[in-house]
Amino acid sequence: MEKIRSYFLFLGLKKAGYSAILALVFAIFDFELLASLFLLMALFFLYIYKIPKRLVANISNSGVVAPVDGKVVEIKKEDNKEYGYKVVIDSSFFHAPLLYSPFEAKEGSFYLKRGTRLGQTSHLFKRLNETLEVFFTNGDKSIKIEHRLKRTPLNIELFTKKREFKCGESYGFALNAITTLYLPKDFQANINIGQNLYASQTILGYFSN
């Protein structure tokens, strides 16, 4: 069982197990369509909740890695006191949905707001859609991350509420989401619009201090 759990999240195994049991029950009573549907659901959950085998990028203490798989769709300067850059990453159903700490953080704070799953074109997308807001800090190093769901059948999952994180350590799950990173003014970015990112492997850039 432990070996299986090294390949799939427990939540995924649980959902796949329930679906497989229902598929078996419907098959026994000759409800072939429903049996096939729940069998497909079991396979879907195993696919979605599989744990990708990743090696964390070998970086210095000032390095920052991508927190999600996805494509960079926007890099914009921010005009406020706390952050200097905004990076937007678009993740689809074809990207691994696990969320990872972008650097070694001494303190992590999480704020999860349950909500809708409206399309990005809706003017209520940012206001109503389910969002996980994360703050990672280590001394004077600080990054804010927002994970906001698009159209998806699954909720955002927060695995832990602990305070300290190693670089590349998983903290949650968000399938088909928009991730927005807010970076310090003196951050040295190493990414481009249109670039495909791989969580815990692609280096986003470096803190200057």
Automatic annotation (TrEMBL):
UniProt entry keywords in alphabetical sequence: Cell membrane, Decarboxylase, Lipid biosynthesis, Lipid metabolism, Lyase, Membrane, Phospholipid biosynthesis, Phospholipid metabolism, Pyruvate, Transmembrane, Transmembrane helix, Zymogen
Keyword Cell membrane attached: yes
The organism of origin for this protein: hydrothermal vent metagenome
GO biological process: phospholipid biosynthetic process
Keyword Cytoplasm assigned: no
Protein name per Swiss-Prot or TrEMBL: Phosphatidylserine decarboxylase-related protein
Annotated TM spans: 20-49
InterPro entries: PS_Dcarbxylase, PSD-A
Pfam family name, one: PS_Dcarbxylase
